[in-house]
Write a structure and sequence with these properties.
239 residues; alpha/beta; seven-stranded mixed sheet; two-stranded antiparallel sheet; 6 helices; binds cytidine-5'-triphosphate; binds the ligand C[C@](O)(CO)[C@H](O)COP(=O)(O)O; 2-C-methyl-D-erythritol 4-phosphate cytidylyltransferase; nucleotidyltransferase
Length: 239
């Protein structure tokens, strides 16, 4: 039986957030974004280990007051220059603890709104697959291609277009090979794991995600996430 492990790249600077802290440490209803993300996976009995990849210079993680004390949690100060470098470094760091056929679910630290239900949907859909798969949502809006003057050049068909989310779930050995392969390609930096696997000629499965599994990128994403969590709390109180 293949085990499932989680790898959380948390080494970014959060430049688009323009905050005084990297966005993974901003408070979301009083808890650092990355800790909400980590706790979600630690709460799942399906997950054998959780690996967080931090920037080598990170001096914030260790000061967090509510760090989980689970033996399943492993912290690696081995972030790289790009997200894919951080993920590849994490895959190497966790290698001694996993089998090459074990599943690795790569999940952005900056997506703290994943739910247990959505996580289970991905695992159920992908665990019998020979390649692996990702959460994603079909494009909802009309898609415009811009010219250099920021005017509409044309309208693109949105048929068959999906927006990638995380987790992205692949066997450890396959994903490591895929990311090592893309490192050899000139000017090719995959922005998600699926893109690296695609470069091997494989076709990852698309599993229906949810809008609430948003990535905290701009300040308004944090406000939106807080509003959703407050609504969850109200609904919980009413139930
Ligand atoms: N060198 C990097 C860059 C990003 N990430 C992580 O990858 C996830 C998704 O990346 P993104 O949202 O782009 O985060 P940042 O790079 O931090 O944001 P920005 O692009 O606005 O600077 C985040 O959890 C981020 O911490 C990482 O581990 N290592
Ligand atoms: C992996 C990802 O979350 C899929 O949507 C996303 O690509 C990561 O963010 P980035 O801004 O592209 O680094």
């Amino acid at each position: 039986m293949q085990k499932s492990h989680v790898l959380i790249p948390a080494s970014g600077s959060g430049s688009r957030m323009q905050a005084s802290l990297p966005k993974q440490y901003l408070p979301l209803l009083g808890q650092a974004v990355v800790l909400r993300t980590v706790n979600l996976f630690l709460a799942s009995p399906c997950i054998s280990s959780v690996h967080v990849v931090l920037n080598p210079d990170d001096d914030i993680w260790a000061t967090q007051p509510d760090l989980p004390s689970s033996e399943r949690l492993h912290v690696h100060y081995q972030g790289g220059d790009t997200r894919s470098d951080s993920v590849l470094n994490g895959l190497s760091a966790m290698q001694s603890l996993v089998d090459e056929h074990d599943w690795v679910l790569v999940h952005d630290a900056a997506r703290p709104m994943l739910t247990p239900h959505l996580l289970q949907r991905l695992i159920d859909a992908v665990q019998q697959d020979s390649v692996g798969g990702i959460l994603a949502i079909p494009l909802a809006d009309t898609l415009k291609r811009a010219d250099r003057e920021q005017r509409v050049q044309r309208t693109e068909s949105r048929d068959t277009l999906w927006q990638a989310q995380t987790p992205q779930m692949f066997p450890h050995g396959l994903l490591k090979r895929a990311l090592e392969h893309t490192r050899q390609l000139p000017d090719y930096i995959p922005t998600d794991e699926a893109q690296a696997v695609e470069a091997l000629g494989l076709k990852p499965l698309l599993v229906q995600g949810e809008l609430r599994n948003l990535k905290i990128t701009y300040p308004q994403d944090l406000w939106l996430a807080e509003a959703i969590l407050r609504a969850d709390q109200t609904q919980g109180e009413q139930a």
